[in-house]
Amino acid sequence: MPDTYDVKEAQATEGAEHTRAVKVYTPAVDIIEKTNEILVRADMPGVDEKSVDITLEKNVLTIYGKVEAEIPDNYRASYVEYGVGDYRRSFTLSEEVDRQRIEATVKNGVLLLVLPKAEAAKTKKIAVKAA
Question: What is the pTM of this model?
């Protein structure tokens, strides 16, 4: 585990047209490759299982999280430092991902995607015999 971490500000996505009048941020992600799978962890504060949409079209996996500003009834925001907006990020998958077994969970605003590797992409140990 590293002792220091890079801190990044949320960035608005560019180049895509949006149907809602809100900012759309690019969530920060960690991608971890294991022997049998690839893990993608995306920070998406305010997103839960009902407000996240994950699509796979051709080789492009897209995550979209919809966030609503939480202001109680009969109140108005007088000062806001936390930017509220949706999240969108796309990834191009290689052939080594088994598309039929992709799983997604979200907890406390963190989306976890498990991308299992296809059998052909897994590392195989070759036994060496004495001649």
Answer: 0.73
What is the architecture of the domain spanning 11-71+82-121? Sandwich (2.60)
> What's the CA gap between 78 and 93, in Å, rounded?
44
Q: How far apart are CA 101 and CA 111, in angstroms?
A: 17
How confident is the model over 90-119, as pLDDT tens digits? 999 998 999 999 999 999 999 999 999 988
Please answer whether residues 71 and 9 qualify as being in contact, where contact means their C-beta atoms are separated by less than 8 angstroms: no
DSSP 8-class letter at 6: -
Quickly list DSSP for 82-109. Answer: SPPEEEEEEEE--TTB-GGG-EEEEETT
Asked whether the beta carbons of 36 and 116 are under 8 A apart, the reply is: yes
